[in-house]
């Protein structure tokens, strides 16, 4: 059928009806070609470098690649035990409502594939524009492979816009035949969500030295607890007298069969102030865990599901070993075991690649965002309240070398109410570049991400970190702090060359916050005790949260001067005046890149219509 | 050429390259057909009920009709002295930048028509989607007629969305040949703007009674002053003993040749408190104008350029004459004479159609919005500051009859900073219906507009009027008041049956405003005298307008209780407690109707792709 030919049609001028019928014929021909093409194609495994299991049993396995020239993602979905089809798609935060879905369904006889969307009630609808483009389908011994393509941006208002940062993938399994897409009842499906960074940066791998060695920091064959969530802590140590090395790369080591259970892993270095740390191998929240392990918080390596190996840029490495650095390391593994498997053994961890031939620069980690203080608070019942932390020009002027620093990776961090995190670089009052942005940030998916482009930061630049919080489920204010129900707004940026600046963060001036409490007190008719001896959290908890008090708090944070923490370490500030600093003024904002749409064919082609009027004059 | 025929092509299956070449042939064929069609069509004059001159000389005359089923406007543009083409289009407020334009241009040999847009610098670009669709072009003795069509909404982001309310039309004349659209230099064009209500409501004309009489209130052959702007005042009077009648319709009487000069006209009835009013015929701002004419402010009829006859609904008429009503009328004509014509004589005015056979109901006029008081103020330098006036449930509960009232027309009113006005009806805390909305409101174009649908208002309903102001060109606060540089926010709604409620307006509670002044005083480090003996405008003028003070004023207006004016006349309130009333709570907002786009053809047709996988299970 593919080989059948007909003479090319040459139609110099046609009547309208003929043109219309011809068009329909063309469409029909396209469809036939497509179905034929589907039978012929064979997915190539090597083309999909990124892979995650979608479900905890690993029955659905997603591989993908990213084409930046095409601005599209190619997906390969392996369905190990296909029943009557499945849903795969994306939504804002992993919900099944308002989702953008590719659906494969069978009525028991025939199978269909289509691009669909679910409304706010979860009802499925066929998309008027089909943007999950099926490229192939193939049966193999391990299951059915579906191959499809999706542009980052489709301009269909029902479609999800694929952006940098976290993407919440959802899946659902059809266990019964369905006669149409509309007949699928989403609430009755067996399904779930998986978070990934879909748009992996396209980075070339630096050359690795000859003398590279490896070291595995792995769990010692532990039994994964039969509960949904476990943070496992294991203490490892470097050999005595281990000299300074550079970590130049690391990668995950995941025990075969546990791919769907090992959610994320981090290796922390302990504080050099203590000569020794106790051994420990057990849950991080156990009462048996020695107190001192809380001093093992300096990140050496972090991995989360879906991430690949992490490479340092060839000019830099992360120093470890040597004098002034602790020998003790803490491995933390988050096991996610929603099906409560029992007796699974695990030896996962991280393999460090390091060299004694030190690279030109030590890499450093700097904290941007907000100081951990209760003066920065979020009223209850907010769907998207924004807090902003500043690293001011005055601090970078003082602390950065004239040649600047290069940020190459970033790890965003908030506690449970965090929904979005963005850091922007501003110079001379104008926003210049997004350092890292995640509009679908989840506190349950914090990974160190390589930046698409290295960001150069010079003395006098400003780094502004904005966090968006949702407190709709809370009944009292959420204040800043270390507790899990308190909040943070942090971007750990990885950069080189290392400087003394470890922390460049801000908080509102406490005096202005005090004026706010006074104002609330005077303005509202209720009598609230805003006595100065009461703690800041207590004062926040007693505010009656009407629209005025909410609005004025928002305005206060957008107006009041700040207290800057421009610190060498968490306790030592650079010399200078850091209290009551003016907020950075931003006069030029970066424009949101508009969605790039395929040119919409209008009612007439985009060319001037020639008129036969003769000369006008 | 139109008659040439070719055999229909039947192409059961084609290779891709053949399909592509065929598509191009189809496009070419469409173009040929289109040009042929243009030659044949003849515009019908009767099809375009609405007409305005675009330029002050009347060389460009626009007629149009509105098709609500098609959601499109058909334009007929008469160009009396065509040179090398013209631009016609629409923009937010009549500017030539960011405009949506239909362009006819000639390179001296050939002429072209296209849909274009201008960017923020005024540079022209061809639209990728051609939405001004040329339907015909015809030479006639009086000039060239261009006929074209434009959908209200095109979904091309470069296009103007045609909505209810004012539309700013712009035109520009090409006086030299141009070789391409891009070569047109907008800043060098002779051009201008004209405001019209493009989407006239589609209302059937009520039957008119047999005994209908007419009365013309017209200027007595005045010489139009040779200056750009004149408001002309002329006093007329009803015969002595003229009994009560109902005005059931009125229409403009415009002296032939002055169509482009007579901008708008109103007939006011004088206050019944005065037995007589002096004669006057002269400019309204003349020092010679008797003071007492300021008591002639009750609108009987209002017309603005582009408007047609105004018909009262068949159940109601506007009462005039009879005891308790003044015999004196004031005609006000706004002459707009930018070319400073000298010695033009004019006898324009309004023709009232009235009947002695009174209709079942008197029509009434009610003022909604804000009280004229300085407590409602707009900070300087705001591009869109919103003030809201309320007619509360408590007032409508008390003042409206159980059967409710029917609003059938509305006249929006602000002073010079007004940019948008919207009134929404809310019931049980949920917005139900837009009473009248003008998102491109201009204080220079205030006409009484028939509503598309009559709005029924019942006791307990709320009417919320929102005005948006631009004070970017001002250096001090703009307070509410009667002065031309003070502001108002009013919707005069025309309704029946008439009730005692003449005024249902609000303003912020003065006590809360006082707390705001105190707060500003305490919160800002500057020492400002906010002494209580200083007037409210003086206190507003002395505020340092930083972001905090702006934000908090906005929050205050959105939070503080209001003082209600629920009045029988401007001085007499209905009995009840009207101070410190709570703001109406709105829990459900009306959704902005999304633009209705033609379905966008996607990369694949919107149908499921059948897969030949056999049975899945």
From TrEMBL, chains A, B:
<keyword id="KW-0127">Catecholamine biosynthesis</keyword>
<dbReference type="GO" id="GO:0042584">
    <property type="term" value="C:chromaffin granule membrane"/>
</dbReference>
<dbReference type="Pfam" id="PF03712">
    <property type="entry name" value="Cu2_monoox_C"/>
</dbReference>
<feature type="transmembrane region" description="Helical">
    <location>
        <begin position="21"/>
        <end position="42"/>
    </location>
</feature>
<dbReference type="InterPro" id="IPR014784">
    <property type="entry name" value="Cu2_ascorb_mOase-like_C"/>
</dbReference>
<keyword id="KW-0735">Signal-anchor</keyword>
<keyword id="KW-0325">Glycoprotein</keyword>
<dbReference type="Pfam" id="PF01082">
    <property type="entry name" value="Cu2_monooxygen"/>
</dbReference>
<dbReference type="InterPro" id="IPR000323">
    <property type="entry name" value="Cu2_ascorb_mOase_N"/>
</dbReference>
<dbReference type="InterPro" id="IPR000945">
    <property type="entry name" value="DBH-like"/>
</dbReference>
<keyword id="KW-0560">Oxidoreductase</keyword>
<dbReference type="GO" id="GO:0006589">
    <property type="term" value="P:octopamine biosynthetic process"/>
</dbReference>
<dbReference type="InterPro" id="IPR005018">
    <property type="entry name" value="DOMON_domain"/>
</dbReference>
<keyword id="KW-1133">Transmembrane helix</keyword>
<dbReference type="GO" id="GO:0042421">
    <property type="term" value="P:norepinephrine biosynthetic process"/>
</dbReference>
<dbReference type="GO" id="GO:0004500">
    <property type="term" value="F:dopamine beta-monooxygenase activity"/>
</dbReference>
<keyword id="KW-0472">Membrane</keyword>
<keyword id="KW-0503">Monooxygenase</keyword>
<keyword id="KW-0186">Copper</keyword>
<comment type="subunit">
    <text>Homotetramer; composed of two disulfide-linked dimers.</text>
</comment>
<feature type="region of interest" description="Disordered">
    <location>
        <begin position="587"/>
        <end position="617"/>
    </location>
</feature>
<keyword id="KW-0812">Transmembrane</keyword>
<feature type="compositionally biased region" description="Pro residues">
    <location>
        <begin position="595"/>
        <end position="608"/>
    </location>
</feature>
<keyword id="KW-1015">Disulfide bond</keyword>
<dbReference type="GO" id="GO:0005507">
    <property type="term" value="F:copper ion binding"/>
</dbReference>
<feature type="domain" description="DOMON">
    <location>
        <begin position="58"/>
        <end position="174"/>
    </location>
</feature>
<dbReference type="InterPro" id="IPR024548">
    <property type="entry name" value="Cu2_monoox_C"/>
</dbReference>
<comment type="function">
    <text>Catalyzes the hydroxylation of dopamine to noradrenaline (also known as norepinephrine), and is thus vital for regulation of these neurotransmitters.</text>
</comment>
<keyword id="KW-0968">Cytoplasmic vesicle</keyword>
<dbReference type="Pfam" id="PF03351">
    <property type="entry name" value="DOMON"/>
</dbReference>
<comment type="pathway">
    <text>Catecholamine biosynthesis; (R)-noradrenaline biosynthesis; (R)-noradrenaline from dopamine: step 1/1.</text>
</comment>
<keyword id="KW-0847">Vitamin C</keyword>
<dbReference type="InterPro" id="IPR020611">
    <property type="entry name" value="Cu2_ascorb_mOase_CS-1"/>
</dbReference>
<comment type="similarity">
    <text>Belongs to the copper type II ascorbate-dependent monooxygenase family.</text>
</comment>
<dbReference type="GO" id="GO:0031418">
    <property type="term" value="F:L-ascorbic acid binding"/>
</dbReference>
<dbReference type="GO" id="GO:0005615">
    <property type="term" value="C:extracellular space"/>
</dbReference>
<dbReference type="InterPro" id="IPR008977">
    <property type="entry name" value="PHM/PNGase_F_dom_sf"/>
</dbReference>
<dbReference type="InterPro" id="IPR036939">
    <property type="entry name" value="Cu2_ascorb_mOase_N_sf"/>
</dbReference>
<protein>
    <recommendedName>
        <fullName>Dopamine beta-hydroxylase</fullName>
        <ecNumber>1.14.17.1</ecNumber>
    </recommendedName>
</protein>
<dbReference type="GO" id="GO:0042420">
    <property type="term" value="P:dopamine catabolic process"/>
</dbReference>
<keyword id="KW-0479">Metal-binding</keyword>
<dbReference type="InterPro" id="IPR045266">
    <property type="entry name" value="DOH_DOMON"/>
</dbReference>
């Amino acid at each position: 059928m593919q080989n059948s030919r007909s003479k090319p049609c040459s139609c110099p001028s046609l009547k309208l009806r003929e043109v219309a019928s011809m068009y329909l014929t063309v469409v029909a021909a396209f469809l036939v070609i497509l179905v034929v093409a589907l039978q012929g194609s064979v997915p190539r495994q090597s083309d999909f470098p990124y892979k995650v299991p979608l479900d905890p049993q690993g029955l659905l396995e997603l591989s993908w690649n990213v084409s930046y020239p095409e601005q599209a993602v190619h997906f390969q979905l392996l369905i190990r035990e296909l029943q009557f089809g499945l849903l795969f798609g994306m939504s804002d935060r992993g919900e099944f409502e308002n989702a953008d879905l590719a659906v494969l369904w069978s009525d028991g006889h025939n199978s269909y594939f289509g691009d669909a969307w679910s409304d706010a009630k979860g009802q499925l609808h066929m998309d008027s524009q089909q943007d999950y483009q099926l490229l192939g389908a193939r049966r193999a011994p391990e299951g059915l492979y579906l191959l499809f393509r999706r542009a980052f941006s489709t301009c269909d208002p029902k479609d999800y816009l694929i952006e940098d940062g976290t993407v919440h993938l959802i899946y659902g399994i059809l266990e019964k035949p369905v006669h149409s897409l509309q007949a699928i009842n989403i609430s009755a499906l067996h399904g779930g969500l998986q978070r990934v960074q879909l748009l992996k940066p396209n980075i070339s791998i630096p050359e690795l030295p000859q003398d590279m060695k490896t070291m595995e920091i792995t769990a010692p064959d532990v039994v994964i607890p039969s509960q949904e969530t476990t943070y496992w802590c294991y203490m490892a140590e470097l050999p005595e007298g281990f000299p300074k090395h550079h970590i130049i790369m690391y990668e995950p080591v995941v025990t075969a069969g546990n791919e769907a259970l090992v959610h994320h892993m981090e290796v922390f270095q302990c504080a050099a102030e203590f000569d020794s740390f106790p051994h420990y191998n057990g849950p991080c929240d156990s009462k048996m865990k020695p107190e001192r392990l809380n001093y093992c918080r300096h990140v050496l390596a972090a991995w989360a599901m879906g991430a690949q190996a992490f490479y340092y840029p060839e000019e830099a490495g992360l120093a470890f070993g040597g004098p002034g650095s602790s020998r003790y390391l803490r491995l933390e593994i988050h096991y996610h075991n929603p099906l409560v498997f029992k007796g699974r053994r695990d030896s996962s961890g991280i393999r460090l690649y390091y060299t004694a031939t030190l690279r030109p620069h030590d890499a450093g980690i700097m904290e941007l965002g907000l100081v951990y203080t209760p003066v920065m608070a979020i009223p209850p019942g907010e769907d998207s309240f924004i807090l902003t932390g500043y690293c001011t020009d005055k601090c970078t002027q003082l602390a950065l070398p004239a040649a600047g620093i290069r940020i190459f990776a970033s790890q965003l961090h908030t506690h449970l109410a965090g929904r979005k995190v963005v850091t922007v670089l501003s110079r001379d009052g104008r926003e210049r570049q997004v350092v890292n942005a995640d509009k679908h940030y989840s506190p349950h998916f914090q990974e160190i991400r390589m930046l698409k482009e290295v960001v150069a930061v010079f003395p006098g630049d400003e780094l502004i970190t904005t966090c968006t919080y949702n407190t709709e489920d809370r009944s009292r204010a959420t204040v800043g702090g270390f507790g899990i129900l308190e909040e943070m707004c942090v971007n750990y940026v990885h950069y080189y060359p290392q400087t003394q600046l470890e922390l460049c963060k801000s908080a509102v001036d406490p005096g202005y916050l005090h004026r706010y409490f006074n104002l609330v007190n005077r303005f509202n008719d209720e009598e609230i005790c805003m006595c100065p001896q009461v703690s800041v959290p207590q004062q926040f908890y007693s505010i009656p949260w009407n629209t005025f008090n909410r609005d004025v708090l928002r305005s206060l944070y957008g107006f009041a001067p700040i207290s800057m923490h421009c610190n060498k370490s968490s306790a030592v500030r650079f010399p200078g005046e850091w209290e009551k600093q003016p907020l950075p003024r931003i006069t030029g904002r970066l424009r949101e890149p508009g969605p790039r749409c395929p040119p919409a064919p209008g009612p007439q082609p985009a060319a001037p219509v020639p008129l036969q009027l003769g000369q006008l004059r």
